Amino acid sequence: MISSRNSERIATAIFYLIALLVSVLLVALIGYILYHGLRVINWHFLTAAPQPFQAGGGIGPEIFNSLMLLILTMLLTVPLGLGVGIYLSEFARESRITRIIRICIESLASMPSIVIGIFGLMLFVTILKCGFSVLSGVMALTALNLPVMTRLAEDAIKNVSKDLREASLALGATQWQTITNVVLVAAIPGLVTGVILSAGRVFGEAAALLYTAGITTPALHFNDVNPFSNNSPFYLFRPAETLAVHIWKVNSEGLNPDASQIADGASAVLIIMVLLFNLVSRWTGSWLFNKKTGQ
Amino acid sequence: MVSVDVSNKIGKYTTFACAILIITITMSIILLITYKGLAIFTRDGVSLKNFFLTTKWNPDATPAEGGPFVGAAPFIAGSVAVSLLALLFSAPLGIGIAIFMAEISTGWGCKIMQPVIELFVGIPSVVYGWIGISVLVPFIRNHIGGMGFSLLAGAIVLAVMILPTIASVSTDSLRANPADIREGSLALGVTRWQTILMVMVPAAMPGILTAIVLALSRAFGEALAVQMVIGNAIRMPTSLLGPMHTMTSIITMEMSDTVMGTVSNDVLWTIAFMLLFISFIFILLIRTINRGRTAMR
User: Fold this and answer.
1) Does the complex come out with an ipTM higher than 0.85?
2) Which domain holds residue B114?
3) CA of B220: which chain A residue's CA is closest?
4) Mutating which of A22, A116, A197, A211 best tests the B interface, going by the most B Cβ atoms within 10 A?
5) Is residue A7 part of a domain?
6) Taking the CA of residue B101 as centre, how many other CA atoms within 13 Å lie in the half-sphere pointing to its CB?
7) Which pLDDT tens digit goes with each residue over B107-136?
8) A residues 118-177 closer than 8 Å to B (CB)
9) Inside any domain, residue B34
10) Per the domain annotation, does B55 fall within a domain?
C-alpha cells in the first residue's frame, strides 16, 4: 500500500504535469502557427488582393474587412451593452422585467454562432434586403457580442464601491450624474480590459459571418472614400469576407494552389492580433488603474 | 440646458430602451428559427419519426422516388458523439488545471496558467480548424489509420477548444469554497491530496458540473473548426477513424446550396431549431444544478 505521504507526492506531481502539458500545448500551437506563418508574411502578402485561381495572392482586403467589421461592431455593442449594464445594475429593481432581460442575455449568449449567422441570412440579408454585406455582418456580430458586453459592463459597474456612489449622492448629485461622472469613470479600467478582450473574439469570428458578410470581396478602390459609392471600401452594402472567413474558404473551396501558405499566413496574422489584443488589454488595464489610484 | 431631473429620466429611459432591444433581438431569433424550423413538419408533412430516427438523407428526392429523405439521425448522433468524446478528453485535464490553480499552486502557477487559459480562449476557431487540418489529420492518417478526417480529429480539436471553459469555471468554483472547510480538514490531520479529493472537489461539484455543461454547450454549437476536420460524410458515427457529419457542419455546408422554401432548405432550419432547443436544455440544466447550490448554502 502506498503511504499517504507518497500518494500526496504522486498526486501533486500529476497536477504539475497536467499544467505543464497544457502550457506546452499552447506554446506549441502558437509556435507552430507563427513559425509557418511568418515565412509567408511580407508586405505584398499583407496588402495585395487574393488571387482566386493562382498562387501569389495576398490578404489585404480581408485584413481591412476584419478591422472595419470589428470597429463598426464595437461602435454598436459598447454603447448598447453599457446601456443594458447600467440599467440592470443602477436603475432596475429585481422584478419580472429584469428576470426576462437576464434570461434573454443568457439565451443569446448560449446560441451557437452558426445559428445567429443563418438568422442574419434570413432577417438582414433576405428580408431587410441588405444582401451579403458589411451591414449584415455587423448586425450578426452585434447580436453575438451584445450579451458578452452586457455582462462585462454589469460586472465592471457592480465592482465600483458603494461608498463612491453614496458620497456622490450625498453631495446632491442626481442618480444620472452619479452614474456618468462617478460610477462609469471608476469602472473604466474594468470596462476597457473587457472590451479589448472581447474585440479579439469578434476579430476571429467566422461562423456568424459566412452567411451575412459573405465569402467574397469586390475590388476595393482605396482612393474612393465616399461611403455611398459602390466601389468604396467604406460602402456598407458590399460583401466583406474577413480574415477568419478567408482561412475557412481557401481550405474548403481549394481553388488556390497555395491554399496552405495562405492559411498559414492568415492564421499567423489572426494569432498576432489576438496576442496584441491580450497584451494591450493587460497594459491599458493596469495603466488606467495606476492612473486612477495616482501611482 | 436640460434640467438635471430631465437628464435623469432620459438616462433611465435610454438604458431601458437598450434592455428592450436585447429582448427584441433574442425573441426575434427564437421566433424566426422556430417558425422556419417547424415548416418541415407543418408544411412539408415530414413526420417527427422520419426526422429523428431515420438515417437516409436526400431531401431533393421527389415523392415519386419515395422522398424526400430527411433522416437527421446521423447529424444528431454525430454531434453527440464528437461532443461527448471531446468532453471525455477535456474534462480530466480541465478539472486538473482548476485544482492546480485553486489548490496546489495558487501563487506563480496561477500567474502562468491564467494567461495560458485566456490565450486558448482567444485563438479563433478557424485557426484551431486549420491546425487540425495541417497537423492532426495527417498525423492520424499516418500513425493511427483511416483518412485522418474523422470523429477522433474532431473530438481532439473540440477538446482543446472547450478546455479553457472547463478550467476557468471549475477554478472559480473551487475558489468560492470557504477556506474553513479546507482548514477544518487539514486540522483533522487529513493530507492535502485527501482534502482536495474528499472535501474541496465535492464542495465545488455544482460549479464543476456547470463547467461541464457549459463546455458541452460550446462543443455542440461549434461549427467551423469541427467541420474542417471531420470529413463531412453523411453516415452514423460508428468508428473513431471514420468521417462523419454534425448538426452544425451540415448547416455550414448546405445552407448556400439550397433554395429557400424547398424541403432541402427547410430541413436545415429544423436542424438549427434543434441546436437552439438543445442550448435551452443546457441553460435549464445549469439553472437546475445551481438552484440546488443556493438552497444548500
Assistant:
1) yes
2) 70-296
3) A112
4) A22
5) no
6) 29
7) 888 889 988 998 898 899 999 999 999 999
8) 118-119, 121-123, 126, 143, 146-147, 150, 174-177
9) no
10) no
